């Protein structure tokens, strides 16, 4: 498995390609845990494949760990129907699958806008009631 990174504004798009195997999952897990947890990441799985179960269990464990720890959740695009079935059977609700990158970008921006609105609506001044 190979990974290429593209910066798109405040987002990192990680293009995963090749075949999942045991040798490639450990470096992927390390990178997710150490460098991607607090980033706005979109995993593009368009060119990713697997043969049999070699490595897929470790890959799923890595995605599960990442989904639980990541500030912005696990977001994937261009996921094949084969992977969708595996994810539905093995991952909990802490992930989202989008058809394309633009859809994922829009979702991130909508969430960010909602968070900013919530913060603005909850602004208040803390004062000493005895001085009023």
Describe the structure.
The protein is of the alpha/beta class. The chain has one domain: STAS domain (Transcription Regulator spoIIAA, 2-Layer Sandwich), CATH 3.30.750. Helices cover 45% and strands 26% of the residues. The chain contains 4 helices and 5 strands, in the order ββαβαβαβα. A 5-stranded mixed beta sheet has the order 1-2-3-4-5, with helices on both faces. Helix 1 packs parallel to helix 2. The mean pLDDT is 83.
Work out the radius of gyration: 18 Å
- CATH first level: which class? Alpha Beta
Largest sheet geometry: 5 strands, mixed
**How many E strands?**
5
The secondary structure category is alpha/beta
Query: What coarse outline follows from CA principal-axis ratios?
Result: globular
| Lateral arrangement of strands in the main beta sheet | 1-2-3-4-5
* CATH homology-level superfamily: STAS domain
In helices, the fraction of residues equals: 40-55%
CATH domain topology: Transcription Regulator spoIIAA
Q: In terms of per-residue confidence, which ranges show pLDDT below 50 for 5 or more consecutive residues?
A: none
The DSSP helix count reads: 4
Order of helices and strands: EEHEHEHEH
Overall pLDDT metric = 83
Query: Strand fraction band?
Result: 25-35%
Separation, N- and C-terminal Cα atoms:
65 Å
CATH 2nd-level architecture: 2-Layer Sandwich
Any idea how many domains? 1
Write a concise keyword list for the protein shown above.
single chain, alpha/beta, 5-stranded mixed sheet, 26% strand, globular, Transcription Regulator spoIIAA, 132 residues
Q: Can you lay out the helices and strands and say which pair or pack?
A:
Blueprint: E1 2-8, E2 11-19, H1 22-36, E3 40-49, H2 56-69, E4 74-77, H3 81-90, E5 95-98, H4 101-121
Parallel strand pairs: 2-3, 3-4, 4-5
Antiparallel strand pairs: 1-2
Helix pairs in contact: 1-2
């Amino acid at each position: 498995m190979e990974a290429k990174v593209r910066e798109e504004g405040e987002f990192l798009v990680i293009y995963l390609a090749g075949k999942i195997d045991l040798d490639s999952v450990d470096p992927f897990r390390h990178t997710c845990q150490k460098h991607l947890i607090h980033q706005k990441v979109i995993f593009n799985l368009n060119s990713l494949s697997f043969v049999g179960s070699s490595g897929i269990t470790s890959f799923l464990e890595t995605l599960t760990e990442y989904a639980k720890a990541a500030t912005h959740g696990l977001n994937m695009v261009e996921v094949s129907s084969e992977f969708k079935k595996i994810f539905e059977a093995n991952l909990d609700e802490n992930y989202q699958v989008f058809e394309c990158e633009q859809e994922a970008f829009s979702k991130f921006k909508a969430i960010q806008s909602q968070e900013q609105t919530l913060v603005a609506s909850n602004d208040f001044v803390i004062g000493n009631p005895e001085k009023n």
